[in-house]
Known about the structure:
Strand content: 15-25%
Bound molecules: beta-D-glucopyranose
Number of strands: 27
Amino acid sequence: xxxxxxxxxxxxxxxxxxxxxxGLDFWHLKxxxxxGVPSVMVSDGPHGLRKQDDQADHLGxxxxxxxxxxxxxxxxxxxxxxxxxxxxxxxxGKEAQANDLxxxxxxxxxxxxxxxxxxxxxxxxxxxxxxxxxxxxFINGVQExxxxxxxxxxxxNNQEYNRMSSSSNVDERTFREIYLPAFETxxxxxxxxxxMCSYNKINGTYASENPHLLTExxxxxxxxxxxxxxxxxxxxxxxxxxxxxxxxxMPSSGGVNDREIIAAVQNGSLDEAVLDRAVERLLxxxxxxxxxxxxxxxxxxxxxxxxxxxxxxxxxxxxxxxVLPLKEEEKIVFIGEFAxxxxxxxxxxxxxxxxxxxxxxxxxxxxxxxxxxxxFPADKDVYxxxxxxxxxxxxxxADKVVIFAGLPDSFESEGYDxxxxxxxxxxxxxxxxxxxxxxxxxxxLHNGSPVEMPWLTxxxxxxxxxxxxxxxxxxxxxxxxxxxxxxxxxxxxxxYKLSDNPSYLSFGDGENVDYREGLFVGYRYxxxxxxxxxxxxxxxxxxxxxxxxxxxxxxxxxxxxxTVTVSxxxxxxxxxxxxxxxxxYIRDLTGSARRxxxxxxxxxxxxxxxxxxxxxxxxxxxRSLAWYHTxxxxxxxxxxxxxxxxxxxSRDIRLTEKIHLxxxxxxxxxxxxxxxxxxxLADNRTAEYVMKLPERMGAFFGASEASDSADDAQKDRAVxxxxxxxxxxxxxxxxxxxxxxxxxxxxxxxxxEINSLL
Length: 758
Ligand code: BGC
């Protein structure tokens, strides 16, 4: 339906317009009944609906409607499967339509800077490319049903401690290359109806009143067309927020901030046109939803089945020394209360009131020869001697043992960060005791973020179930007993210990959180440091094996506007059907900037029958090769060589190929007295001109003069050509005056001449 929104807004009073810019209550926007503007509802959250009918809260305290708890982001990202994420989004979109929800508050794409962040279970990855692709697919799925999404938390909200007041201090290049691209990709590929700004400050300015973030980057650069809403209670100065590009404050501020907007318009400090523009953006999205309402049919049961599929496609098999899959006739002992009461989601605003939850114990007890002993509790860290003894006894007489370990709810949640990276001590202790009597032991982990694994070398099998959603029991049964071949891979690195993590010395600070590790987050850091890790990014096993061959590149010489198609054949070399996630990383060999050794720029998941070969394909463009140049204020890839790395994980590179770029992009250069000769020699616009200068300076350094005296020979060794060249390269032009090569006026002339070449 065509609507004339400007005309509609012209009929609104100032109070009505200001009112549109904040919530009616906890979950609704205001409407203007007399003008036919409906009041619509929004609701958490990314992995299921948390629609609250009565008592509202944003902390997951009060009950919401019965819904399906799909696997949280920590697990679904491990699917590396865009199609599956889209199907997931579609299910959420249908459920939301059927429940009269205009916007679902998610996905959450913040980068996992540290394993300690209490909300890591809600976030996808340490890698911006994977997070962006996953989010875009999910958003496209939801919005296919004319329900909006709210990609969050924009931006650099990477810890829970002091989240409403701390400042994430991050340099511009790191911000652009690590913390923003997931949002950027989603905006460009899926145009989310809304963006949720985060609580924190960025370099001293609240995200909710940050024009650089909300307008210059989000709208002007990326072309965002929807509206920005605040996280619940994230508004600091409402009028500044509106000016910066924050259209909607959530939840209601009880009219306080609406009155500030009205007063600002009346006293002339806020241009009414800014308010009108905000209202237009809000109305546009509200009507996009209400004008496209459609009957939706879904059943909780069907969505439970989808939740099971997503979990099955995402759980990551980390270790398997011929112990898995389990066989039904084997005498198996399950240990750990998580087998009976799985931890399948996290605490806080994403907490779903699941209509049903499956445990592996319920799933398997009548189908296999399984005995269950509790061993340790799922909800606290208490070592119980009687329980432990019972578990050890049972383990001794089993063919195989599976220990269901994990983090209790209280160890990780929205609102606070983890204190350490360990499992409860009682679990580590019992795992050790079991391993002493039973070598055929498998550990299954239920956790929202990596844990230290002191027993890693001794266990025969390890399955990372993360938080599996409400169908976790079926998914675990299918994978452990081999009905489903595991195919997830890690969306984050698992370091051996917390202190290995690059943010270790600056994570969790209070007022100012300095992102000192810069670009070197996750595998970008561990690779640069050549540091051993428990499991690398992109790692995951299957019950079958895969071989890679025949890497081909559509063209090896490229210029700025070219796209390159890369393809590689993957063969299932085992005897089970399975899926392989093929990863493409790029390495910059040009030396134009300090860069990570490799960065993910493509992935493809292929399903293969035994013996079958299929081709995985990827598309690369200029941006795939580029880094963010703060001088250029744009992405930049220098001319030169780049290496394409095809791998089964970030540390299992199977095939490589080089390509060569010739760019027309020219870097900005303004030459002044402190510009070094090296900078000028490195730029082909000025190199030739400057080449002549060292000749005149040679006498000063005495480098290339031939000499035969003993003294001179000694000097020649001390003053090598390398040293001379290095010293010349690092010399600012002003030194030419100081060292008497030129006079001041001559330097001025030289500067003018060089600048005229640019
Ligand atoms: C969370 C958001 C959530 C909102 C509404 C806030 O505390 O940070 O992610 O969408 O509450 O529940």
